[in-house]
Each structure stands twice: as structure tokens, then as C-alpha cells.
Amino acid sequence: GSKATKEDKLGLYSLINYGSNTVNKVKTNTAQLLRLGGRYDYNLSDNSFFFGGSELETNKIQNIDSRYSLNIGAGFKAIQTEESNFDLFTGIGYSETQFGTTIPPSSTNKRGFEFLLGEESTHKINATSSIKQRWAIYPGTGDIGTRSTFDINLTTVVANDWTLNAGASFSYTSKPSNNFSNTNSLITFGFGYKY
């Protein structure tokens, strides 16, 4: 969700995914992800802004007990029309990740400063449908490595202010815990309410 005025913009997001599978009476979790985040933009001019943001995440299947990141930076509004918005942004931040089970010599946590490079856009396809996407890269210092996330969502109004939503989320880390996968992906379908 987002709330924008002429002076500023506040954006909040969340992603929750839980799944399990039972085979021969043995239950195994197949997904256990929670991501919460937000960003506040303050407009410096018609096409530039300053921002501060944070994100919290847990992803038990990827052995991430908890991760938090804080960042600040500046952005440029490259396109601003009724049909499309496209922003570029960059900044610096700090991140700390606590891992679940670790096998030596893997560390139980990683922390350090990271840079932030990203872009996001919103496009109206027609009167009832729009697509929103965001790509961010976090090159980190020390042993935290480089992270990257890409999210894309399609929203279509189906009745009154109710919407049908389809989304995809992809993440990458160059230095995962133990021998876990470098990549993670999620595809979702659901309903929303536009207010």
C-alpha cells in the first residue's frame, strides 16, 4: 500500500507465505516466509526525493531466522505521467542476518554496511489493470555478500473496489548459509481491496 501527497510518499508492504506437506504422517514445512518493510520519501523537487526505509524478514526454509536492514538515500523520478511512473534510487544501509542451524565454519550471523541500487515503476495497462515492479540490489561489505530482490504484481479490478492480484517475487544472495540455495522464488494469486 502507498499514500502519496505533493510533498511526500509513504509505502508499506508485506509478504507472508506458509506451506506444509504431509507424507506417511510426517509433516514437513515447505514454506515459512515473512517479509515486512516500508519506505518514506520526501520530495526535494518535482523530480528528486530523499528516502529512508527498513525491512524485516524471516525465511526458515532458507535458514534465515531473522534479517533486518535500514537504509537512506536519494532518488530520481525519471517518468511521471498519468499512465506510468518510473523511479531510480540509490543509497547506503546496514544489514544483519541471524541464521538457524549452521555447520562450522559457517557463521551464525552476518552483519555489515551495504549499498543500495534500485528502480521501481507503475504502469496502467488500461482503465482497470495496472502492473507494478521493483528491483533492488544490495552489494554488501565484508562477509554479507550481495543480495538482490525483484518483485512484480499485476492488479485488475473485478468488482467495485475489489481486485484480482497476481505476483512474483525472486531473491538472490551470493553468500547463503551452509549449502542452501542462492535463489528463492514465489508466485502468488489473491484478492485485494482498493481504497
Q: How much strand content do the residues show?
A: over 45%
What string gives the helices and strands in order? EEEEEEEEEEE
Q: List unreliable stretches of 5+ residues.
A: none
Strand order of the largest sheet: 1-2-3-4-5-6-7-8-9-10-11
Identify the overall geometry: flat
Query: What structural class results from the helix and strand content?
Result: mainly beta
From the N-terminal CA to the C-terminal CA, the straight-line distance is 9 Å
Tally the beta strands: 11
**Total helical elements:** 0
User: Percent of residues in helical segments?
Assistant: under 10%
Task: Describe this entry's structure for a reader.
By secondary structure, the chain is mostly beta strands. Helices cover 0% and strands 75% of the residues. It has strands spanning 2-4, 8-23, 26-43, 48-59, 64-80, 84-99, 109-124, 129-139, 146-159, 162-173, 183-193. An eleven-stranded antiparallel sheet has the order 1-2-3-4-5-6-7-8-9-10-11, with no helix packed on it. Strand 8 (129-139) and strand 9 form a beta hairpin. It is flat and about 55 Å long. It starts with a strand and ends with a strand. The mean pLDDT is 91.
In short:
By secondary structure, the chain is mainly β. The protein has no helices and eleven strands. A hairpin with a 3-residue loop joins strand 1 (2-4) and strand 2 (8-23).
Keywords:
mainly beta; single chain; eleven-stranded antiparallel β-sheet; about 200 residues
